[in-house]
Every structure is written in C-alpha cells, then in structure tokens.
Amino acid sequence: MMRRGRAPILVLLALAAVTLPAQAAAAVAVGANIHELREIVAGPAVGATSSNELLSDLRGFDGKDIVYAGEVVGDVMIRGDRAWINVHDGDSAVGVFLPAGEARKVTSAGDYLHRGDIVRVVGRFARACAEHDGEVDIHATSLEIIAGARPLNHPVDGDRVALAGALVALALALYAYNRPHLVRRVTEALARTRPGV
After folding, report:
1. Does residue 167 sit in the same domain as residue 111?
2. C-alpha angle with apex 162: 160 to 165, nearest 5 degrees?
C-alpha cells in the first residue's frame, strides 16, 4: 500500500516524463523556421557576412563595407529621410540605419504571426557608432528584398491539448482524493478556535 504523500509525486514524475516528447516537438518547429532563414541568407548568391562573424571580430570589420542579410524584425522606424530596421540572420539581430526610401521597400517586418521580408543590405559596419551612442550598427546604402514576407503557422499541438486535459483531470482527482481530509482538518481547526460552539 502506497502512502498518501507519495502518490501525487509519482504521478507528477510520470507526467513530466510524458511531456518531454511534446517539448522536443515544439523545439523542432521553431528550429525549422530558423533553419530555413539561415539557408536563405547563407546562400552563395547572397554573399553575406553573418552576425556571428561580425560579433566575433568587431575590430576587424569596424569601418568596412559589408553585405549583411536576414529577416526584418520588429518595426520599420522612419525618421525624416533616414530609417532604422533590425535584421536578424537566424543567430542575432543587427540594427541597420539606411535611407528612408530604401526602408520603404520593406513590405512586412517579422512578428509572431509573420516571417518578415528577408533582405540583403550593403553598408558600412560600426562596432561602436559615434553617431548612435556607441551602438553596433550598419549604415546601409542599399537594401534588396531577397524573399518576401509570409504568414507563419502555429498549429495547435494535439498532444499538448491532450496533456493539458490529463493534467486538469489529475488536479481534480487529487483534489477529490484529498478533499475529505481537508474538510476534516478545517472543521477540527474551527472547533479548537471556538470552544463551545
């Protein structure tokens, strides 16, 4: 016979073991989008320097003209005749400062529901831009769309829905299992605090 205190722990450990495949499946879905982005920007036709290369050799690239490619994420921030965009290559995002006319070519920036335009920018890399408070950025002169924006699918994982249902059922079962003891304890505590009632 199992003691009351151990049953919930064993059930929770069993459920934790069941959730690992669902967590792995979610990681695979996210990884597929990143993998697709990396394949596009790393292609020989793009000829781009990666964010990993830039960030691992800041001094070496400082002040040099480079090609950088990735997904436009966040907002396109137009300020007069200049604009800011953030370009994520699958590893890191780099801020790109460019003419507003070039930034207007972007049709959609990436968010939870959309993969943004994938762009190729040409410009000068700065490891500590004096104009922008020491930020790492690229002052681009041109922007080219190399892949258009598209919706992202976030399908509901049936396994996760079933698991959530099982966890709710377990919580209700544990509550029902322990309820008589809780009622008795509360009644006894009330009787001790109000003698003669």
Report:
1. no
2. 110
Give 31-84 as a 3 state SS string.
HHHHHHHHHHHCCCCCCCCCHHHHHHCHHHHCCCEEEEEEEEEEEEEEECCEEE
- In the block, residue with structure tokens 């934790």: 16
Judgement on whether residues 86 and 104 belong to the same structural domain of the protein: yes
Q: For residues 54 and 69, what is the distance between their CA atoms, to the nearest angstrom?
A: 12
Whether pLDDT at 154 is above 80: no
Task: Tell me how far apart the alpha carbons of residues 41 and 55 are, in angstroms, rounded to a whole number.
Answer: 17
Pairing of strands 150-151, 114-115: antiparallel
**Number of separate domains in the chain:** 2
Domain interval for residue 44: 32-151
118, 132, 20: which is closest to 71 by C-alpha? Answer: 118
In a domain, 135, yes or no: yes
Q: What is the pLDDT of residues 30-48, one digit of tens each?
A: 556 777 787 777 776 677 8
Q: Are 138 and 120 in contact (CB under 8 A)?
A: no
Question: pLDDT-derived band of residue 130, with 50, 70 and 90 as boundaries?
Answer: confident
Tokens of 185: 């304890």
Tokens 């480079």: give the residue. Answer: 66
C-alpha to C-alpha distance for 89 and 34, rounded to whole angstroms: 9
- Check residue 99 and give its pLDDT: 97
Taking all residues of the chain, what is their mean pLDDT, rounded to a whole number? 81
